[in-house]
Amino acid sequence: MSPRPDLVVASFNVHAGVDGWGRPWDVVEGVRSLEADVVVLQEVWSPADGPSTAQTIGSSLGYRVFERSLARGRRATPHPGADHRWMRSLDWRGEGHALYLNSERPLPGRVLRSARFGEAEPGSWGIAVLSRLPVVSDRVIDLGRLPRDRVTRAALVLQVDVGGRPLTVIGTHMSHLTYGSPAHFLRLQRVLRDLTDGQPSVLAGDMNLWGPPTSLFFGEWRRAVSGRTWPSWRPHSQIDHILVRGPVTPAGGTVMPACGSDHLAVRAHLTLT
What is the rounded distance in angstroms from the CA atom of residue 53 to the CA atom of residue 68? Predict the structure, then answer.
């Protein structure tokens, strides 16, 4: 636990612990490198017959784990045609991709009939918040599902103790703008307005949205990290964010080096003022 009222918060979309070909990478070491007191994770994978990615990280690195499944599906094994690229170009929706989410919205028949889908590992996909600080309370904000989205959306809310002072941490993974995500942004903004009013708070996650419009939706929140986070091999946009509200001062924000995911993690040192 931090001896002073400061802490390090990080957010990382881990893409289920595999690259676009289905090749695994070391998620535990990736999270260890963040050296964070609280970590918000997106695209956490939970196999049907074993511990989730978040649980494995928690037990290895000493975090308490709070997670929420957002969809069920399958995670593919490494593709036999894999090359040096993170994934094959223009294959986000193809049958050669590594993740198939079909519990909330059906996949095309050609994908369901493919051998790669049939051989893939069943499980669930979601979000998690990991904390090394004492957790006073936790809750879930259910945002529902947008018609075009393949997953439901939610936010995890933890109140943690930072050197004897309370801090609210919200972790989420928002939908795409083309799917109608403004509806969810406005819903979450309304809930957080009352939940965090005047209190030191941190909102972190993959927002699937650039910094300026994210700031527009969360007008009273301040960005703690600025830098390009996606795609990791040639980043051109920041869609992963850490925002603060109330008596919290960012003392340094960093975009971390690539370590396996298609996203770069973001990390912020924060002080409660």
Answer: 12
In CATH, 6-272 is 1.10.357.10: no
Q: What is the pLDDT of residues 61-111, one digit of tens each?
A: 999 999 999 999 999 999 988 999 988 775 655 566 799 999 999 998 988
* Residue 62 Ramachandran class (φ > 0 left, ψ -120 to 50 alpha, else beta): left
Assess contact for 218 and 209: CB atoms under 8 A. no
Answer yes or no: pTM beyond 0.85: yes
Say which residues have a Cβ less than 8 Å from residue 61's Cβ, sequence separation at least 6. Answer: 28, 31, 32, 130
Tokens of 240: 């992963």
160 CB-side CA count, 13 A: 31
Phi, psi of 152 (to 5 degrees): -80, 165
d(CA 267, CA 252): 8
Burial class (CB in 10 A: 0-12, 13-18, 19+), 263: buried
Produce one character per residue of 199-233: b if its CB has 16 or more CB atoms within 10 Å, e if not.
ebbbbbbbbbbebeebbebbeebebbbeeebbbbe
Angle in degrees, CA 244, 246, 250, rounded to 5: 45
- Side chain identity at residue 123, one-letter code: G
Quote the CA–CA distance of 66 and 158 in Å, as a whole number. Answer: 9
Question: Could you tell me the residue ranges of all domains in the chain?
Answer: 6-272
pLDDT digits (tens, 9 = 90+) for 127-162: 999 999 999 999 999 999 999 999 999 999 999 999
| DSSP H or E stretch at residue 96 | none
End-to-end Cα spacing for the chain: 18
